[in-house]
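Section handout 9: paired folding examples.
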Amino acid sequence: MSSKRFGALVGTVAALVLITPGVAFAHEQRQVGSVEFTVGWVHEPTYAGFENAVQLFLKDGKGKPIDDLGDPPSLSVQVLTGNQTSDPLPLAPSFDPDTGLGTHGEFDAAIIPTRPGDYTFHFTGTVNGQKVDEKFTSSDKTFDSVKEASAIEFPAKDPSTGDLATNVDRLNPRVDSVVTQAGVVKKAAASASDKASTAEALGIAALIVGIVLGGGGLLMGLRARRRA
């Protein structure tokens, strides 16, 4: 085979792979009873802080895509990383029977991974009446682990959301300390103001008492003179 024909053949195969519906790159495929699961991210490589989604392709025992998860659907997915677990996420079908748009057998659960690391997708519920309780974990042999976005940032590498969160966590105790000190100062000032107000009131009262007593003494003196 000539080099030109070989190159054309390679190009044709590559084009077919790219346009074939349901083909998933860097996904894990697993047989769960009579149902075939293919699991990964919608966008790969996967970067922290960017919108993404858990992507699931389903096929029955005959290799036919499964478009219906029931009404209401019972299958959901939770995302795990480190010691954190998300709430159950609904799986939205890609294929729209009304318009015919989308991919048969594909379901997506939108999520924004905010930290780099390994992620696990835990599927629970039922598919075609079959119970499902399966975990799929990112790795070199399955689907992408989440990476820091700085790897593709240009021209400047901005702080990641994780870095900003860490800085805020470090700053919070200092802010709390300043607020506490300000509260103490305010309380002391209020106490001093109260004391000053009390002293002023006592002074005014003493002055009034002095005036009253002085006036009474003067009045008694005048009366004594009149009697004399």
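Moving on to protein 2 of 2.
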Amino acid sequence: MEAKNKDLLIEGAKAFGVYLDEEAIKAFDIYLKELLKWNQKINLTAIRSEKGIVLKHFLDSLSVKPYLPKRPSVLDIGSGAGFPGIPLKIVQPAFQMTLIDSVRKKVDFQRHVIRTLGLRGTEAIHGRAQDREIVQNLGGRFDITLSRAFSDLRTFLVLSFPFLKGGGTAIAMKCETDDKEIGLLAEAEATRYRLRNTLQLVLPFSHFKRTILLFEKI
């Protein structure tokens, strides 16, 4: 990783209360290089520059860190090339992290990174969150479900529900949101979820806007 991009990662992480040690910086460096290498052969992400990956993948993933408990079990639904699950696991090894994606090549990449970085307590599953076998095996196991713009909000909440423990939190990371639409959705889901918080932010060193929505399972 170029020195200037390493500085962006270190300083940007501080904006979310994350202070990267040398081990974490090395892990992000390896992750970045593997992502760029694999991306030459298979389409893992449309972002192909070091700076873009640091800003729009790594820092974006870390933006939810302040809203997670210290030792949760987390399910990252539609995790793609491992975002946000793997960056969160790098900065907080105590997380029990499960990633699920329907695209085999992306899961293969996730497993490669997990092995390469030695991320214990991390599992990558190939499949869809609505698959009966996956729901049966993983139902009711998680404190947190995460989604990074993988589907519309209603679909994410429906998919999350069987995986969450009572009182667990579904966290949706969205680019843009309609307050009226969110309000109507919160009313429609009032028997299953309580909208706990809506947070607006701009990612460090960019103009990229992010909305984070926290729904608590009733």
